[in-house]
Structures
1.
Amino acid sequence: MTAVVVIRTGTANLASVLAALGRAGAKARVTDDPRDAEHADRLVLPGVGSFGAAMRTLRERSLVETLRRRILEGRPTLAVCLGLQLLAESSDESPGVPGLGVIPARITRFPDAVRVPQLGWNRVVAPPTCSLLESGCAYYANSYRLEAPPSGWACAITDHGGRFVAALERGRVLACQFHPELSGPWGRALIERWLGNRRGSHGPEQPRAASGRTPMPRVIPCLDVRDGRIVKGVRFADLRDAGDPAERAALYEQQGADEIVILDVSATPDGRRTAAETVRRVRAVLSIPLTVGGGIRAPDDAARLLDAGADKVSVNTAAVENPPLIASLAERFGTQCTVLAIDAARAEPIHRGGTEGAERTTAGAEQEMFAGHGAGPDRSDHNAPLFPLCASVVSPSWEVVTRSGTCRTGLDAVAWAKRACELGAGEILLTSFDRDGTRSGYDLDLLRAVATAAPVPVIASGGADTPEHLKHALDAGADAVLAASIFHDGNHTVAGVKHALAALGVAVRTDA
């Protein structure tokens, strides 16, 4: 097997990279020793997190000059996502922090006119001058990009708020803004070519998205897990067994799923952490992105899941009870890795603590909700209001519910989504509690309201039954659509849903 050294940058979740290298026929090991980096036949520089944090780690471990020299000499090196950005001189993400300086350029942020971060599948357009890169469809998770190709490098491009560099190659040095390890068979073929284990084309190119929408809308099967088994119910209750998570995840990827979400529905109510072993089993068979949530109360909980194979982590109850948790996750792992799950129900009138100030508006109540909130994850009274109000208020249209729907918080779902983005959430997983498992269609009014308020990608969840329901959600502003029952019960396959969406004019990824 081909030997590969993977650099530990301190911010990257390495399980996906290691699994992909193994599937491509490589024997990989992780190191932060500069001597290993110097003598490795092949080296991977992965990246998840911030430019400044990664460069600080490389400097502390005396890796900067070794990596710089290796890349300038053209020795086999694969840089992934943030790894590509580290090759530049600097980044707007971390002003004043020097990069490796291999590329004489600055990394810039996407314009505000598009969703940031870019999360999902987008085009890679490679010219004939590339020997490793081929045109296709790849998975991206980035807020910053290299706008123009540097001299002396072959360059593939893509578009999100304007053209930017999708990947660079020079000899055996390959730098990808996308994640080849999460880009399915196309990404595996690219890794195999870089390893020297594969020649020739992966297959026909994807047609350009007719709508011009980037990234392509995602179809995401959701695996609600309890005690290592998939379960499904209605409004988070009456749960029934729906299979093995690893088997289902592999099946859905074969059918063309763009991503998999695992939510441990028992983790928060039972006070348990999500079982990392389930995540490891799923990652072993999966070559597309994996989001995991349930029972995450601190960054170390998230780190365990990322080490086990998750690419993103989702927080819900703990974030409502302790909003600074979102900022802590984003600072340590990056906004593209931090998902806020919101379970929202049609609100009930709120009457708490007397009548003084009864004419306050909902917006005024929201200011009180967010100001001076000191509740932590260890509250003893879980049914008490998480954001205490001293007077009656006009209730919000949608109220955040937590603890698998057993606790109504009085918190306005739209305001919470907006505030979470300010704290660092990079994606919103929005579930209609009222629609969950009912197959009556998504709550489109809720979806429109949150998608308008949140500048980050929004995943619609709760109520899907037909491809038309998914199309309506995308039209209402969703960047991705999540479903469970229709796939678990065999009413639809992922491939069938995506072909139906394509027939309805949605430019989904269909190369799987």
2.
Amino acid sequence: MKSGFVAILGRTNVGKSSIINKLVGEKIAAVANKTQTTRTVIRAIVNRPNSQIIFIDTPGIHKPKSKLGDIMVENAFEVSKDVDVVVFVVEATSDDIGKGDELILEKIKEANKKTILVINKIDLVDKAKVAKIIEIYKNEYDFSAIIPVSTVKDTNLEIILDEIEKNLKEGPAYYDIEEYTDQTTRQLVEETIREKALKLLNDEVPHGILVEVEKMKKRKTLENEPIYNIEATIYCLRESHKGIIIGKNGSMLKKIGTYARQDLERMLEIKVNLKLWVKVRENWINNEKFIKDFRLV
């Protein structure tokens, strides 16, 4: 039996969370084409016949513009120091190594960990472009493996697990084989609601969104069917953002709630009655106490 911890590093929007979700086979991390989709360090567990792999999905590396951004980037790099293997995700669409990827490479060299390079989104380019990117990165670091993948077409994803397993040492299972994440149900609900908001809202609004589940209670309907009553608050930075989130006659908030409820019912395998509210908490992304109170660090 082998086991170990694996950090996934990469810039924002390279597809780290999509890779995690595909490998685990469950929705663990929020996926949206927006920066700061992953804010906290999320553990996801893959149980194989001869190994247990604990993935740590880190916030995307970006140029911080707030206290929250500083903490997110700092946490991502700190995690990489204490794992057995690093998976570094880059995009096949890149022409060269950008500043963000250069910074990650520097940290990988400092940590001197076994590192697997994953080149994502190969479905968007031709083979010659993939070969060029492979050659560029080969000259930068002695990677344990270089794997071109596509989460859209499920190409080569299983190879990632095979290569990680090769680089793990013998060890015990740290989690029960039935578990696939260390997140609580409440955290998964919050992430699901936030993901829907990220996907539906304008670019300026999502960075300042935070979701808190206020109540979660299971009960029986009049027809004696089980149902989850969930009440959650979406926090935003400004009053103008609150109006955008609610939408005309509550249309946007209703849409966020509908999409989130559909996902939650699939995830929880039970009917869900979801109620959402929107509150303004000005400049919370620079309020360290607020960030800590909401378990974002």
3.
Amino acid sequence: MAWRRFRSNRAALGGVVVLAVVAAACFVTAATTEAGAGVSKAEEAAVGQPHPWSPSRSHPFGTDTNGRDLLRRTLAGGAISLVVGLAAAAVSVVIGTFYGAIAGQAGGATDRWMMRVVDTLYGLPYILLVILLLVYAQQKFWVLFVAIGAVSWLTMGRIVRGQVLRLRQEEYVTAARALGAGPGRILVRHLLPNLVGPIIVCATLTVPAAILQESFLSFLGLGVSAPQASWGTLASDAVDAVNPVVNCWWLLFFPCLFLGLTLLCMNFVGDGLRDAFDPKTEK
């Protein structure tokens, strides 16, 4: 039923197709790119032109200030942005799911104290925490998605906790408790399987947020470091090349176009999954 509802949503299906094409192009390009620098091994000897070139037939996206093909760099950078977004979302989903499920199942004082921790973390400047973690860990690549995921699980935790509080009142949970099932067994065998829909929907909406945060941090110089590139670093590098004297608009336009298109499609997919898993949907 969920698949039929999702299939009837043309915007969501279109988002899946576009995301599949973009992801395939990004990862294939990244696999044939030297050191993430946006230059193919065959073109490595041709690098070093002193100024960027506007889009042409040989370079559809133009070249950057070092003469590197911007199309290849944009696709290779997209692979890094997608990996960081997916990994950060995975970290966020794991932490938020288990934290919210334990709080909802425990109830009482344990639930209240765990939710006070969440409220306290909500009050902290979350982007500042990410920056502090990155600076403390010397901006290592794997710390980037761990830092983003470790501070973006709060919404997931609240959603899961609310769903557990609702489901624990259902008759099948009461029956399992009457048959002698313990809290852990009820949580694993009965509650978590019924939370798959909300978790998938929330995870789908977490991925674009993580990609946007990575791009913002890379734009500030705190994310992906050279020679690797991401959509955020490409946009950051383009800022100096877009000015009234030398207007290299393509350096900023194409990375931001791919970033915006990816985020838009992911939001379409998330909305489609939300409607597909909603039992109140009539389609």
4.
Amino acid sequence: MTETIQVGAEVPDFTLNTYEPQTGDFGSVSLSDLKSAGKWTILFFYPADFTFV
């Protein structure tokens, strides 16, 4: 089942694979880690584009 998220709603926790240019390797980041570190996070969705932003 897919959840619908509305503007202003709290986003469920997730983990993403990342590329770390400083080390030249891959890593991961989770929303809960960013929140606990006090980091601001902006999420956006850009459909039908398969390039790196």
